[in-house]
Amino acid sequence: MKVIGIGNAITDVICKVTDEFLEKNLLKKGTMKLIDKDEFFKLLSYLNIEETISGGSVANSIVALSQLGNDVGFIGKINDDELGGKYETGLKKENVKFFYKKKIEKIKTGTCLILITPDYERTMCAYLGIAGKIDETDINESLITKSQITFLEGYLLDKGGPKKAFEKAIKFSNITAISLSDEFCVERHKNYFLDLVKNKIDIVFGNEKEFLSLINAKSFDEVINFSKILNKEIIITRGKSGAITIFDSKIFKCNAKENLKIKDLTGAGDLFAAGYLHHKINGGSIQERLEKGTELSSEIIQKIGARL
After folding, report:
1. In whole angstroms, what is the distance from residue 31 CA to residue 213 CA?
2. 163 domain-assigned
3. Is residue 305 part of a domain?
């Protein structure tokens, strides 16, 4: 395969909320919070569901890569329950090879509330369920070895099983890409992320806030200088300021699209990564990678949900 993704197999439940709802429930806008099953259903009881879709950050990227005509696969842990069945069907419908045999588990398939405020920002509350229990036994080293790129998500990372799954995947990967995923994730696992970025990962995706947090930087110039000495492909999205790649001490820039009718920022980073990796695996230049990423992210934020 061109790309195999490893990430949280999460069913997205999309709801519209007010800023007051976030404040009342102590939720920080634009971030992801891990919650337990009881808190998930408590929050859901106050909400009207707009849409339910098979999701997960890397899974969204992998689906988009498939839609662009690439041979791709995904590894993520689900239960043999109703949501798990829908999740698997959703991936197969998009011609994504799903490399996990679901079985009956005590823990349910993971679910994420995606709360969209009037400014179109998304705030996430994730009940990881069985998705967060992935471990090294779920990683097929032959699949990793035979894939051009292995794409990991920061959301997946936690102590124990997921960390071992990460390390096994990296060990057998030809080219390893990672999304930092969320400022919350970076803060929780900063030292480990920093080690990965410096020593083990070839391609790193993140937004400006995530990189500032990663190196405790006070200015974006610090991020630039840090990235220049890594000799890796560092891709940073900056919202209205566009996106940049730093590679081999050079900076490549792409402006953001203008006059967009934004409806939902969910999946912007996921689709940006898909567009970027599409040209990476098909011989496109760094500038073409940035432009395709920007094109797809601009398209997805003009609709509800993270699937084209």
Report:
1. 13
2. yes
3. no
Give exposure, 256-280, as e/b (b: 16+ Cβ within 10 Å). eeeeeeeebbbbbbbbbbbbbbbbb
Assess if residue 306 is contained within a domain.
Answer: no
The per-residue pLDDT string of the chain (308 residues; one tens digit each, 9 = 90 and over) reads 999 999 999 988 899 999 999 999 999 998 889 899 899 989 999 999 888 888 899 999 999 999 999 999 999 999 999 889 889 988 999 999 999 988 999 999 999 999 999 998 999 999 999 998 999 999 999 999 999 999 999 988 765 688 899 899 999 999 999 999 888 889 988 999 999 999 999 999 999 999 999 999 999 999 999 999 998 999 999 999 999 999 999 999 999 999 999 888 888 999 999 999 999 999 999 999 999 999 999 999 998 878 88
| Distance between CA atoms of residues 106 and 20, nearest Å | 35
Q: Look up tokens 């057998």; give the residue.
A: 172
Answer yes or no: are the C-beta atoms of 138 and 167 closer than 8 Å.
no
Which residues in 17-53 are b (16+ Cβ under 10 Å) and which e? beeebbeebebeebbbbbbeeeebeebbeeeeeeeeb
- Counted domains in the chain: 1
Among 243, 251, 203, which Cα is nearest to 225's? 251
Quote the distance between the C-alpha of residue 89 and its chain's center. 20
Q: How far apart are CA 10 and CA 57, in angstroms?
A: 9
Residue 230 backbone phi and psi in degrees, to 5: -85, -25
307 within domain boundaries: no
* Range of the structural domain that residue 237 is part of: 3-300
Q: Give the Cα separation of 204 and 71 in Å (integer).
A: 21
Going by DSSP bridges, is the β-strand pair 233-237/203-207 parallel, antiparallel, or unpaired?
A: parallel
> Phi and psi dihedrals of 257, rounded to 5?
-70, 150
- CATH number, domain at 60? 3.40.1190.20
